[in-house]
Task: inverse folding
């Protein structure tokens, strides 16, 4: 089963660069799609996600893709995963939070 992050961004976007740097530091696999030459496709993606900026980040687990948000949301998401792993709760946490 493939587990990775899918990042949509632009070449001159500092938050896109920070996103890939963060994922590399944490040794997490990712696919980066630059959308500079496809502005209409990027606009459609933004509309579908109801998100105004890049990067637009998804987590892909098997056949399922979950929208994370942008760089700040990815940081929060990864921090939450580390906290769960530190408590040994993993994906079995059903507290409803």
Result:
């Amino acid at each position: 089963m493939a587990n990775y992050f899918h990042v949509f961004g632009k070449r001159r976007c500092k938050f896109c660069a920070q996103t890939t740097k963060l994922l590399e530091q944490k040794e997490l696999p990712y696919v980066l799609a630059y959308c500079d030459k496809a502005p209409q496709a990027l606009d459609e993606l933004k509309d579908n996600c109801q998100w105004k900026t890049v990067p637009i980040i998804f987590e892909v687990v098997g056949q399922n893709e979950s929208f994370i948000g942008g760089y700040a949301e990815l940081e929060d998401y990864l921090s939450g995963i580390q906290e769960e792993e530190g408590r040994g709760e993993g994906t079995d946490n059903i507290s409803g939070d």
